[in-house]
Specification:
Blueprint: E1 3-5, H1 16-28, E2 35-43, E3 51-60, E4 64-70, E5 74-78, E6 82-87, E7 90-93, H2 100-119, E8 130-135, E9 157-158, H3 166-183, H4 195-203, H5 213-220, H6 229-238, E10 243-248, H7 254-268, E11 277-281, H8 284-294, E12 301-305, H9 306-316, H10 327-343, E13 350-355, H11 363-373, E14 374-384, H12 397-401, E15 405-407, E16 409-410, H13 415-422, E17 433-434, E18 445-448, H14 452-468, E19 477-481, E20 495-496, E21 499-503, E22 515-520, E23 529-537, H15 546-553, E24 556-564
Parallel strand pairs: 1-2, 4-8, 8-9, 10-14, 10-15, 11-12, 11-13, 13-14, 16-17, 18-24, 19-22, 19-23, 21-22, 23-24
Antiparallel strand pairs: 2-3, 3-4, 5-6, 6-7, 20-21
Length: 574
């Protein structure tokens, strides 16, 4: 399939004629060496105030460049008024840039000039053949006296007969590019040497940013309008509450609000009186994500998972490190270590403690944080999701903090995933709604496998398809399982679809972008990925464990795939 930009186009995102052309180009140009850009906009000068656009640009390393203007609906050429669109029986002159053919010719020259300035080419140095065309996908032009106007001669036009099938579209594209290359015989192969550079440097540049989410929240407030009305209400209430409990479904922005509150407290204080703020969660991977991706580097806000807090405080109190980190230590020994550290009198209390993933905190942990690390007049905010209470320890939070503030708008997932997610517990999740700005998205896909080898082959095919056909980066795909890797179908492999498998917890220490991340469902709590594949849903997992499935299915922002054994019924099927 052609490499499409954007990789997907919904019928509602483009005019009907352009959507038809997009889908046919995608199906007709079957090799990934074809690159097709839809609605390409570019600047005419460095000021950025003058722009042009081309409906479609088709690029091939050996065949050159074809720029196409699409005119949907019915068109005619009137001798007095030129090219006209037929609308409700009336002729509407198409006067933009002198009509469709002058429009695409002018835009073509402008694009070549912009590229020449970017790469410092002279007119003779442009390393590829290029030309233009106009597509009329919905009509056959009315020929007067058997002839078309001079500017519409030959294969420079494509009428509705061309768009009957992908085969006819391909034949027309090859024919038109053949004509163009015939006019530039010396440039037949010159494009291949610089093709990748032209694509990545001009048409589809990769842009990285050092700006962090919290910096925008606290300093420029650019993200403030993106808060839902619920979130804005909660953010305002937090400023006046010494103790607050916030209950939100998966994807409702709880971590976002936690960071927002932490940074707001820090930035609102005078320079010489900055508060000590602790942002604590349960998941070590989430704590790492908050530190690396969300907090500004100049804000001295501590962000740690709970067990790291206990051990950091023990270290500050000069207590010996725990000898054993067994289950008893993780359940109760850690908080006992925190209490021992407090008794030394060496700990500095915090002005505010913000707890994310509160449903995973045992009551004694919350009590320990409040009694050992929070100032008497300090603020404590707990954000939790009762439906993610995998460990069954968070039910007493309302008894301690009072009635929670509800947040119900899902800002993470597409509408399709949100519907699927509600299916895990239709009664409890009935009030969860997707954001009004959410995309409809692809329907989640459930794949049934029979053996580990069968599942591994399905994973291979799926990852290849996501990369080759959906143009995803490998790092945008997360593989999630109820089990550690050695107990899954991935136990015997270290590569999938030719890509290295990397523990998600190591993502900030790995510079290789050509890797796929895997993790257990529990260790991925609080995190998200553009595409999530939940695998190894076999007989070992209880399908009635709604909290675990709810966590897993809510991690994918745009795509969700589920691989399960026969006989494992998802809640939607029960």
């Amino acid at each position: 399939m052609a490499t499409m930009y954007p990789p997907e186009l919904m019928p509602t995102e483009g005019r009907h004629g352009e959507y038809l052309v997009y889908t046919l180009f995608r199906d007709a140009l079957t090799e990934p060496s074809w690159h097709v850009f839809y609605n390409l906009r570019f600047h005419l000068d460095s000021s950025g105030t003058r722009t042009r656009e081309v409906d479609f640009v088709v690029l091939h390393p050996d065949r050159g460049c074809l720029m196409i203007e699409v005119k949907g609906g019915e068109y005619v050429h009137d001798s007095a008024r030129g090219w006209c669109r037929v609308y409700r029986g009336e002729l509407q002159p198409d006067t933009q840039h002198g009509g469709p053919f002058q429009q695409i010719e002018s835009a073509g020259f402008a694009l070549i000039r912009a590229m020449s300035e970017a790469f410092r080419w002279t007119p003779k140095d442009v390393p590829f053949a290029w030309g233009t065309a106009v597509a009329f996908p919905h009509c056959t032009l009315r020929r007067v006296d058997g002839r078309l106007p001079a500017d519409a001669a030959g294969d420079i036009i494509a009428e509705e007969a061309v768009f009957d099938s992908p085969q006819r579209v391909r034949a027309w594209v090859l024919r038109r590019l053949g004509q163009i290359n015939g006019a530039f015989p010396s440039k037949g192969k010159a494009f291949r040497e610089c093709f990748e550079k032209v694509i990545r440097s001009f048409f589809a540049p990769r842009v990285d940013s050092t700006s962090r989410l919290a910096s925008h929240i606290a300093r420029t407030k650019l993200l403030e309008p993106m808060l839902t009305s619920e979130q804005r209400t909660v953010v305002r209430l937090l400023a006046a509450q010494p103790r607050a409990l916030i209950a939100g479904f998966a994807g409702t922005g709880k971590t976002f609000m936690a960071v927002h509150r932490a940074v707001s407290l820090f930035d609102a204080a005078p320079k010489d009186a900055k508060p000590r703020v602790l942002l604590v969660c349960f998941n070590a991977n989430l704590a790492s994500h908050i530190r690396q991706e969300m907090l500004p580097t100049d804000a001295t806000i501590d962000a740690m998972h709970f067990h790291a807090v206990c051990e950091r405080m023990a270290e500050e109190a000069a207590l010996p490190a725990p000898v054993q980190r067994n289950q008893e230590y993780f359940d109760t020994g850690c908080v006992e270590l925190l209490e021992d550290a407090f008794c030394t009198g060496k700990l500095r209390p915090y002005d505010a403690i913000i707890v994310d993933e509160g449903q995973d905190f045992r009551p004694r942990w919350i009590e320990g944080l409040e009694q050992t690390l929070l100032k008497a007049d300090g603020q404590m905010v707990v954000l939790y999701d009762p439906f993610q209470d995998i460990y069954g320890v968070g039910a007493k939070l309302p008894a301690r903090f009072g009635r929670p503030f509800p947040v119900t708008t899902n800002c993470r997932n597409t509408k399709a995933i949100c519907r699927f997610l509600r299916g895990t517990n239709p009664t409890a999740l009935r009030t969860m709604e997707p954001s009004e700005f959410a995309l409809e998205g692809l329907e989640p896909t459930v794949i049934t496998y029979r053996t580990d080898q069968d599942q591994l082959q399905e994973l291979e095919k799926l990852v290849r398809r996501l990369i080759d056909e959906h143009d995803l980066l490998p790092s945008q795909i997360a593989l999630l399982s109820p089990f550690r890797r050695e107990n899954t179908c991935l136990a015997t492999v270290d590569r999938l679809a030719g890509l290295r498998l990397v523990d998600c917890g190591r993502r900030y220490s790995v510079t290789d972008r050509h890797c796929v991340y895997y993790e257990t469902i529990k260790s991925f709590k609080g995190l998200e990925a553009p595409c999530v594949i939940v695998h190894d849903l076999g007989v070992k997992i209880d399908p009635d464990n709604l909290a675990s499935l709810y966590v897993a299915f809510s991690r994918g922002r745009f795509a969700l795939y589920v691989l399960r054994q026969p006989g494992v019924a998802l809640p939607h099927e029960g």
